[in-house]
Please model this.
Amino acid sequence: MINRNGRPIPVPRIVGPIRRQQPVELRDLKVLRANTERKIKATVPGPFTMGRQARDDYYRDEEAVAMAYAEAVNAEIRDLFAAGADVVQIDEPWMQQHPDKARRYGIKALNRALDGVAGTVAVHMCFGYAAVVRDKPSGYSFLPELEQSKAQQISIEAAQPKLDLKILAELPSKTIVLGVIDLGDMTVETPQIVAERIRRALQVVPVERIVVAPDCGMKYLPRAIAFAKMKAMADGAALLRRELGAN
Model:
């Protein structure tokens, strides 16, 4: 694998049983929880995605690798909720890249990662960071299948790829975390543009099952632009709430 600078990304090598030796994000979550009374969210990589990115010299079985990662992710998620997380998000972008394999064992691994988890869990699906992947399809190769997952929320990239939102009708039991901020464009959206993107989703999904969000991570954006885009997102959501007569 190559990063955006053309440099190779080290590939994890599996040479023995996958086990979580210690919590990975717990310290950061505790620091955050201690400094705010607002809802907080933690993000962890998904078992399918980690399995697809690793070199397996031990299990010799890609499904077994995903299931072993799922055990480790399960332990991490349990610790995060116990420490006060309100939402934990599992990132699974490689389900989009490898839909056939995801259909074979991706949901199985995802659900194993959520065994016994009582908190609110989101699964994030995207096409890759906007700074790295510019040419994006207008539809997912793997999305309706997540209706069978234990996750309560499905987080999708929708603004930059101009996603056909009719597909959301195939996730009738899920809250949709709707991407309304295009991270491939340095132009800051107006609140009116954000509100219109939400309106399109409301043609398919009722308002009580919509949460607005950026398309994906904002790590490649300059801080000032990222802040302005987040403000536009909040202002656009507020505009629409007023329009709908909501509090």
